[in-house]
């Protein structure tokens, strides 16, 4: 769905290539409408205290302060997260911290934010604990994919909604806090209404999104959300970025660059000037920032990388849609119950990260090879999502905005390998599986083809791509502050 019908909030029509979409512009000025929009909700139970669980519980509690709506956190018995939840004001004494199933049983809106594989294993028990008519809330469509794979669905009689922030949990909380003095600063979110037996599901979803601080809420479906989200994690948001910088670091070293220069031309260029340029001015601005021989090299790199990247994104999409990728996450969860997942930060390039960060000061230039490969991969994901029928808001948020306004700033502060080793298990598994595939595609297909002339039709198609119009419209709703990751 790309339209939103609300009896509480004033929505807007946004013109996008080929049509229009209905969106809601958020802001703290909408907080007084939340009690009415959360029709029939007096208690919200947030199950889980991972990055999303913590951020959403805190944002919901702060936004609903004084409304009479209680936000509680439910954790499994013996959870190591309990002390941190207590330190943040969720306690047994004030009735806002409890056992996962008891919180689920006593909540009118139950937000399921435990890990994907754990949710796949425990959802029947949780569903069995729900009070009649309680609203089921998700921030990811993974569970729908799991249910569909076995011919099942959510329990009848329960509204089922999703609010899916287009950024990591830390970003959801940080930009919300920065927005205390800047109305509307936060992370964009999509909503989906999967079941609406009482007719109030859309307004509840919008209220949840507004309460999280989302400056821009757009509509999707649970099925479209999990496909674009999981594919994006494995492609331009994490997997492709990791494969890209590993391949480029080796390429520049073989060209004769010292380790620091190779790191700066690969990782620093992507997470720094390339990300900032796209965030501020769009994809064509990266090419426009280069001139002469550098722009010609960008064109050759773009031409060499687009098709190999597009092939991989399409392959990932097929495996997500068919259920293979979801099953691999569940299988891995069983396997990793007895052994930890190893880190990927052991390759030679990451040993130079601290030295590179210490040298920061003078701006790092946009390397044309790095820029060409990165922009080609991002555009390949955009084009594949468009070909699969995703709405433009979903395309630009999942392929561009989430990358340049949430993930890449964190990668710049911490480094890419750190982000991969500290993201959700679903994203981490996907990155470890597909990152090497992207690395091989760059090393074996794209970089050897740099000697070939640029494909003028590919560059013309890039410059005329409708995503630029869609991103420009969406960027008008961008928060007026950049995320602080210091």
Secondary structure topology:
Layout: E1 12-16, E2 19-25, H1 34-37, E3 43-47, H2 51-63, E4 70-75, H3 82-87, E5 97-99, H4 100-105, E6 109-112, H5 116-129, E7 135-138, H6 142-149, E8 160-165, H7 169-178, E9 189-195, H8 201-212, E10 216-219, H9 222-234, H10 239-254, H11 259-281, H12 284-288, H13 292-322, H14 324-335, H15 353-358, H16 368-387, H17 392-414, H18 416-421, H19 425-446, H20 456-463, H21 467-475
Parallel strand pairs: 3-4, 3-6, 4-5, 6-7, 7-8, 9-10
Antiparallel strand pairs: 1-2, 2-10, 8-9
Radius of gyration: 22 Å
| CATH structural class of the largest domain | Mainly Alpha
Query: N-to-C terminal Cα separation, in Å?
Result: 38 Å
What is the approximate shape? globular
Class computed from helices, strands and strand pairing: alpha/beta
| Residue-averaged pLDDT | 94
Strand order of the largest sheet: 1-2-10-9-8-7-6-3-4-5
Helix content: 40-55%
The biggest sheet, with number of strands, parallel, antiparallel or mixed sense and barrel status, is:
10 strands, mixed
Summed up, the helix count is 21
Per CATH, what is the topology of the largest domain? N-(1-d-carboxylethyl)-l-norvaline Dehydrogenase, domain 2
Number of strands: 10
What is the name of the CATH superfamily of the largest domain?
Answer: N-(1-d-carboxylethyl)-l-norvaline Dehydrogenase, domain 2
Could you name the ranges where pLDDT drops below 50 across 5 or more consecutive residues? none
Structurally, how many domains make up the residues?
2
The CATH architecture term of the largest domain is Orthogonal Bundle
Chain oligomer state = single chain
Share in β-strands: 5-15%
